[in-house]
TrEMBL record:
One of its GO terms (biological process) is receptor internalization. Coiled coil: none annotated. This is Dynamin-2. It is found in: Cell projection, Phagocytic cup; Cell projection, Podosome; Cell projection, Uropodium; Cytoplasm, Cytoskeleton, Microtubule organizing center, Centrosome, Centriole.
Amino acid sequence: RDFLPRGSGIVTRRPLILQLIFSKTEYAEFLHCKSKKFTDFDEVRQEIEAETDRVTGTNKGISPVPINLRVYSPHVLNLTLIDLPGITKVPVGDQPQDIEYQIKDMIMQFISRESSLILAVTPANMDLANSDALKMAKEVDPQGLRTIGVITKLDLMDEGTDARDVLENKLLPLRRGYIGVVNRSQKDIDGKKDIRAALAAERKFFLSHPAYRHMADRMGTPHLQKVLNQQLTNHIRETLPSLRSKLQSQLLSLEKEVEEYKNFRPDDPTRKTKALLQMVQQFGVDFEKRIEGSGDQVDTLELSGGARINRIFHERFPFELVKMEFDEKDLRREISYAIKNIHGVRQVSEQTGLFTPDLAFEAIVKKQVVKLKEPCLKCVDLVIQELINTVRQCTSKLGSYPRLREETERIVTTHIREREGKTKDQILLLIDIELSYINTNHEDFIGFANAQQRNTQTNKKRAIPNQVIRRGWLTINNISIMKGGSKEYWFVLTAESLSWYKDEEEKEKKYMLPLDNLKIRDVEKGFMSNKHVFAIFNTEQRNVYKDLRQIELACDSQEDVDSWKASFLRAGVYPEKDQTENEDGVQENTFSMDPQLERQVETIRNLVDSYVGIINKSIRDLMPKTIMHLMINNTKDFIHSELLAYLYSSADQNSLMEESADQAQRRDDMLRMYHALKEALNIIGDISTSTVSTPVPPPVDDTWLQTS
């Protein structure tokens, strides 16, 4: 069959990957139009020309994007050929000025592969030493293991000359030798000369030519076809071990995904029902695993939903409570005003007045307890955000069915939002309950007598000495540029000190910083930096580390910053309070109390501190329990028991289980690839057991060149 475009100038402008496959029937298929079988090979030629023009244009442009063509025929041997553009020196039409280098680069991409055989085609009427094909083949295959020489146009050589020395492998010898062919001329093609007649004419030429008669059996297109088939078989056998292992690893990587596709057939309603039930059930299992932290598939790249919620409960929420801790001067001033306002015109004097702290104490305590509402509600919001993120992560597995994913996400998120209101109401109720009765008989409450004697400095107890509170990587952001700029260290925070080491082995300690008189302040993120920064400084204006007044510590996210701040709070290192304005400062500095009032303020201050500590402890304990019961456990129960019913009521099964077009295509491609890999492995097994191979020719003896 004659189906490759022919003509003057550059005709092949895109690589053509041609797979010849032995078959009882004769037809052709293109990869870019899979569903169509071509039985008329004139149409094949027209399709090659049209597909070339579609990518490269009609004015001689080129492209490295290949055309894939399969030809099934009883007249071919199994073979894969790549027809590459010929090397052109002078640009024509739309071709760029560097057309020669573009074509050479394109050819190099294909012939550089170790798995390819190189067919170096050179016309006989050209000096072999100037052959671009041989020169390029020599660059990528210096040993000549992959190169076969082909000499064309033997019938067009000047009279009295021949290519006998070349074909006998004496001139520029190749390890695999040269094969001569005689193709149809342009006149023969224009005259529709049959290929069978052309092959007979080629055979007659070699048998009748005195220079080639003795090697006629090793010349011609049929012999080239057999040699290529045999050489390709040899080459495949040599590369089989690595090819087999590569295919097996690809097959193993696909098996898990293919297993999922085996469980579902789009046209089977019973399969749809089963798949829907399985997916909803799996969604519930995934959600529970992410919250509870159980299961065998543990995420090692980032914290899952449950771990994040735990951090909110035990680090972020306590941090928010401490952040709203009252300012000492403001609190004392409020206490003094409360005492004075309670007595009204009957001011207490040193000699006559009796001190009754109950009303003042209750007024101040209630004011502090009301402040708990904001961090408590913020805690609920943070947990809700994590729950919704967890739902989205779990529904990502439903991506094959967009409607099912969308409905599942909507239904569960709506339920979470409904529970949000009830949870917040319950938490506000807890705080209102605390406000309704101030229990001064609580066993942990210090009482009036102890409050008068207690030293205010003792109420901020540190954790157990030497107790390790946290370990982790942090970047010191403000080391001088001369010393390398910012640098990452392994930090260990205990109840008494902050130490940093070279790495997590904790063998090479860089420095140990005592926590006395340290506080934390926020630092603005740098313009070019994606790190989030906070600083540690000494309240007595001393250097913290070497010549630094503060150490700037950087984390990858604001969440990490808040988490570290919460850890520092546990160690007794508190955030810096916002500086009051000058006017307020003047008022505070000029505010003075008589000694008796000062003692009363101190007593109530101690009482307030003790009782608020009890409330905080209670709230810190009840908050996680309330959120777990009313929101998280309730959502888990909803997913397991009610989600399916809501899905059925929201849409019919067919629309829920309608695959996305991308997913259907992906499934088809995946299954096709899977079966192709299995078939390839079977073929490799057949090749390795039944194929006869010939040894690679020995290296060429070119000593005659040196003697001549």
